Fold:
Amino acid sequence: MFSSNTYIKRRKALMENLQSGLILFPGNSNVGMNYKDNVYHFRQDSNFLYFFGIDQEDLAAVIDLDDKTSTIYGDELSVEYVVWMGPQKTIKEKAKASGIENTLPYAEIEKKISKAVSQGRKIHFLPPYRSTNILKLSAWLNKSVKEIEKGYSLELIQAVIDQRSYKSMEEIDQMEQALATSKEMHEVAMKNAKEGIKESDLTGMVEWKATAGGGGLAYPIILTVNGQTLHNHYHGNTLKKGQMVLGDFGAETEMHYAGDITRTFPVDKKFTQKQKDIYSIVLKAEKDCIQALKPGVLYKDLHLKAARIILEGVSALGLVKGNLDDALEQGAYGLFFPHGLGHMIGLDVHDMEDLGENHVGYGPGLERSTQFGLKSLRLARKLEEGFVLTVEPGIYFIPELIQKWKEEKMYPEYINYDKLTEYLAFGGIRIEDNCLITKEGQRTLGPYIPKEIEEIENIRD
Ligand code: GLY
Ligand code: MN
Ligand code: MN
Structure:
């Protein structure tokens, strides 16, 4: 945990942003994988972590905006629990570390809420994303699941986004730590990749480094020779000569701040010319967009900048023809680059996505596009000092998408479908780094992770 002052200040700022009523934070509980006691790895809710810092299941918290108190609700562990799970700090001790004196048994929360409801007080809660929390809120507030799913507080969402979007120095330090571990994860994959070993062998090494870092994975590992499948979690292929490996993985710190890095490298020690051609376009898009980061820039414009670089690059290879300004505007680049340029990152790898992508990444006055490719852009808004975000352009050759667009005669004036047949087995390339927006521009966080062609080839020797 950070010092209690951090949490006290965060709660104070939140209280100042909202008028009156109660703010309810149901923390997360364990979830059974295949039966109740065989549970998924526990992950506390990020908003709970941000405002209270207590990384324990089966807690809830209430901030009373009128009497300015914060209370943690939870049941002290019995000795029987300690027999199975070992000794733990008491809830009282943990609450104290968060700067909170008030703790009550879990069952008391229902009384607090029903009294507030009967007094007509406003109850604020964030959009719940776990069914157990939807059911808890439903019971506490005596509302149907549907009412709970739609009953979140827009005021609270906005107040939380207004705080969590700006990272403090201690948060940035956490992200630097996550990225130091993420570098080790990527280097072990790059060093050990070779013909004949399996994706799952490399995945195991990557996971080992994440675990050794203390916090584990920030999200499930993407490590695949089929990089054209954007979120590919299959690890059963054996690496073959001529293929490329796309690795998109990052560590989380013990305090749950995330790193999100992608590197793509050949199975062989050297890139082929064809691989170099495509890789160089993605690298230019990534580096040029990172260089252009600064306060005031609309991130949507950087997405379009990356798309333009990609169109120019593939046009030089004969894959695209015609007027590139028109091809850009009409979205023809979506065939090669069907996802967004990046997203906010922090306590969540896609930071605050539980609060709603459009609230976090668009905000008032910015309409989300419905165009294929651009509609997947999670972050479009004007950048501000203190934001931390990813920059992650890519070029993919997705045979099913190419086939569909060809059959539907999509953009025949721009796309050279004949030439594309030479790339159907190419796969995909993505390069991703995490950047802090500074007063003047940006700082790429974490230690440098090789991405130039020669640097990657040198690691393989
Ligand atoms: N790791 C998922 C992403 O890059 O957004
Ligand atoms: Mn990623
Ligand atoms: Mn990402």
